Amino acid sequence: MYKYARIEKTLMHPKYVWQLPVRFYHWINALVVVILGVTGFIIGNPPGITTVSEASLGYWFGTVRFIHFVAAYVFFFNFLFRLYWGFVGNKFAKWKNFIPYTKAHWVDMWDVLKVDIFQVECSKNPNLGHNALASFTYFLTFIVFLLQTLTGFGIYAAMSPSWFPQLFAWIPSVLGGDIATRQIHHILMWFFVLFAIVHVYLVFYHDYIEKNGVTSSMIGGWKFQDKDKVEREKD
């Protein structure tokens, strides 16, 4: 393993940031969100597929629903695991990184916004973990994850006698009925679509301007930090 990587004549120091459980969570979540989005869209607006075979032999829609439900369970328990890892993981995975409870966090968010929107030069040494804006955005996505889980299993409770979905049977009555719950569930799906587009763009953008391995870090776990900038900030 190389101890240092030289990028544009700048000495970059490697740091192990994302532990294996965090990386597993990220890619499992990315996969199941895509599966849930595609199957959910089909369930909400099924195509009129006709065949010459007996109708009882055509079970493709049931298969789509089954895949959706299985992915929902994986999504839910993967999310529970990330909640747990927010307490036992390393300092980059801790929950305190995601909640802006200090003035410095809000100042950092504004600095990142200026970089992302106005494309000004990043004067500070890039954060090894998530930057302030990204961490707060992920905190909001966790809330959406929870709402999507509640509404999804709330809908599923009406068609499943299993004990686990029945734990969420009260959700539709709180939200105004099954139709309202389905609408909320559908709207939240588009949040994931928009989030994915912006997320992928910003990951590659920050990888380009910071040159610290943002993209590859979610595969290998390592990021790089400019040693000269670190020493200047300490001074």
Description:
By secondary structure, this protein is mainly α. It has a single domain, classed as Transmembrane di-heme cytochromes, Chain C (Fumarate Reductase Cytochrome B subunit). A 3-stranded antiparallel β-sheet has the order 1-2-3. The longest helix has about 35 residues.
Quick take:
The chain has 235 residues and is mainly alpha-helical. 64% of the residues lie in helices and 6% in strands. The chain has a single domain (14-47, 57-234), classed as Fumarate Reductase Cytochrome B subunit.
Distance between the termini: 30 Å
Q: Show unreliable segments.
A: 1-9, 230-235
Which term fits the overall shape?
elongated
Overall mean confidence score, pLDDT? 86
SSE pattern: EEHHHHHHHHEH
Write out the strand line-up for the largest beta sheet, numbering strands in chain order: 1-2-3
Number of domains: 1
Measured on Cα atoms, how large is the radius of gyration?
A: 22 Å
The structure class reads mainly alpha
Question: CATH H level: which superfamily?
Answer: Transmembrane di-heme cytochromes, Chain C
The assembly state of the depicted protein chains is: single chain
Helix content: 55-70%
- Tally the helices: 9
